[in-house]
Specification:
single chain; alpha/beta; 11 helices; 9 strands
Length: 294
């Protein structure tokens, strides 16, 4: 199983040097890939800019956005961003995760409607591939570049949760990004089982790529800081839900993180992204030590 790590992007006060240190540690560590998520509100850094910087500052790891909330953006703009990022990385953008999102205020801030996002994403995925294939989008306008480094562009993985959305994505996605906040084998395995059935029902010959993810912390005072991170991430859903979820996540020591990795592998993950609760370099250094002993 390949291990990827998500860059910190939700902490206020991060600097150029902070990111340069993270880029170096990840690229020199035992990691296959690096990712970043997308949020609009709060002290969040722009996923596209952070990953473009990572594309230039690193030499080895794959660059994987996890994920674009695609219906919040014009598809042509995303296609151009991804192709540019791919070129800047020297061809290391092999997969891109796209999803629907559900934060209405983020949609509102981006001046895009939340309503109709499922149908819109179906159309946008088709348009991404048309752009990456060099097809003309506007009559007489010519193709929209740059061309990505591989014909047809990167694989598209769907960040979907429920059976209906997974079935919908099976029509066009190359794989599934399954999420289990606490790295539970059953949650990940169930998502992949849904994907396998959906891909079969859609008549897809190639089985879905299986990418998973979970939250963790190995920093000092990890238990409290992981709780705070999860609570802050989910406070939009209300205090009751945020508290329940924060209490359910306990990957805050080496044994617990190792167990979550074992769970992901047993569930069938081909790759897993671990998402740190803090921007402390201890998160990456201690994780690297853990993986060296695993």
């Amino acid at each position: 199983m390949k291990i990827g790590v998500c860059l910190p992007y939700m902490k206020d006060g991060l600097t150029r040097d902070d990111y340069l240190n993270w880029f170096q540690r990840v690229d020199e560590g035992p990691f296959h890939s690096v990712s970043c998520g997308e949020r609009v509100h709060g002290p969040t850094y722009d996923m596209r800019v952070v990953l473009a910087a990572a594309a230039i500052a690193t030499r080895r790891v794959k660059i994987t956005p996890t994920l674009y909330v695609l219906p919040m953006h014009p598809a042509v703009g995303v296609a151009k961003e991804v192709a540019t990022m791919d070129i800047l990385s020297g061809g290391r953008v092999e997969q891109v995760c796209v999803g629907y999102g559900g934060r209405e205020k983020d949609y509102e801030a981006m001046e895009r409607p939340l309503r109709g996002r499922y149908q819109r994403m179906d159309q946008q995925v088709a348009q991404l591939r048309r752009v990456w294939n060099g097809e003309e989008i506007i009559d007489g306008g010519g193709s929209i570049g740059p061309a990505p480094t591989r014909p047809g562009g990167p694989q598209l993985l769907a960040g979907a949760l429920g059976p209906k959305s997974i079935a919908r994505c099976a029509q066009w996605a190359d794989g599934l990004y399954a999420w289990s906040g606490n790295g539970e084998q059953g949650e990940l395995a169930n998502a992949f089982a849904l994907a396998n059935r959906a891909w079969a029902n859609a008549g897809r010959e190639q089985p879905p790529y299986r990418l998973g993810g979970f939250w963790y912390s190995l920093a000092d005072n990890a238990e409290q800081r992981l709780y705070d991170y999860v609570y802050d991430y989910l406070d939009i859903a209300g205090a009751e839900i945020a508290t329940a979820m924060a209490r359910s996540v306990h990957r805050h020591n080496a044994d617990a993180v190792r167990e979550a990795l074992d769970n992901a592998e047993a569930a069938g993950c081909e790759e897993v992204f671990v998402v740190p609760a803090t921007a402390d370099l201890a998160e990456i250094d201690r994780l690297s030590d853990l993986l060296a002993r695993r």
